[in-house]
Model the fold of this input.
Amino acid sequence: MIYAVAGILFGFVLGYMAAGMGDQAPPRMAPPPGVADGGTGGASSRTAAPARDRAMTPPDPDEVRALESLAAREKQNVQARIELGNLLMDHNQFDAAARWYREALALAPGDNDVRVDLGACLVSSGKAGEAIAEFERALASDPGHKKALFNKGIALMQSGKPQEAVAVWEGLLKRYPDDPQLRGLREQIDQVRATRRSS
Done:
């Protein structure tokens, strides 16, 4: 039932990912369970290929090596670690991406966008409990972080807690009632509720 409900959200999630949130270096959105990530674009998406095509192919090994070499030489270089995480996440290498996001957070623990990217990787790897913990850390210092709230809902769905997911999304809509990026979320919430009633 959880996977069916998550499937309902797929179209909305992809639209939300593609639109971005207008943040600087926008964090990624976690796809519903079992669905390839669509990416979010933004400054970290450096290739011209569509996001879905990138996800189907491995990252450029030369680019990976260059960034890894830079990270090895410059132990305090947060941006190199973020770029490695972004590159690997864009190609659905979620565990490897999570490693680099963790390294970036070790150097810059207050970067909530990176923390949300880590959480999105964890959701995509089926580690919803760990993901929720990361989203809650981000929300503890920034209660209005839109992507943390949205992704927390996805993680709660993956954890078999659709009622809690809906509550998170309801709060998100209350906080940002006129946000064009959230257009359609109300309809999706209603579909989740309808699916729960009919199951």
In short: The chain has a mean pLDDT of 80. The chain has eleven helices and no strands. Residues 123 and 131 are 6 Å apart (CA to CA).
